[in-house]
Amino acid sequence: MYPFERFEKLRLPIGLGLYTAMAFYLWYISFGFPPGDATSWLGIPAYSVLLFTTAWRALARAKGSKVKTHHLSAVGSMLFVVSDCLIVYNMYVSALEMQQILIMSTYYAAQFLITLSAAQTFVDDAKKD
Which H helix or E strand runs over 75? Predict the structure, then answer.
């Protein structure tokens, strides 16, 4: 096994699609950034790259997989992206109606699915022994 075996199947179209969506979203919300605010202009794009990379890798792993934990983590990662995008939209573009419900429901659903996928992995591993 070599160190980058997990990245053997990069599934570049998924990554390119996500990064393109991210770029358009960042461009759209950047009009609401305060001028000269380094956190907004540097921090949000840097965090977005990390967040969308996580979603890309989860989706790439789930594509074509018959393992249900891969699908749980993929859906959870996309819900996490939606949750964080809603937070940034609410902060810089326009206040959302029912912001608390929208943001927290996607956030908790994401956390639940990601945790469930990890827990299921431990159960599956225990069955193998």
Answer: helix 68-92
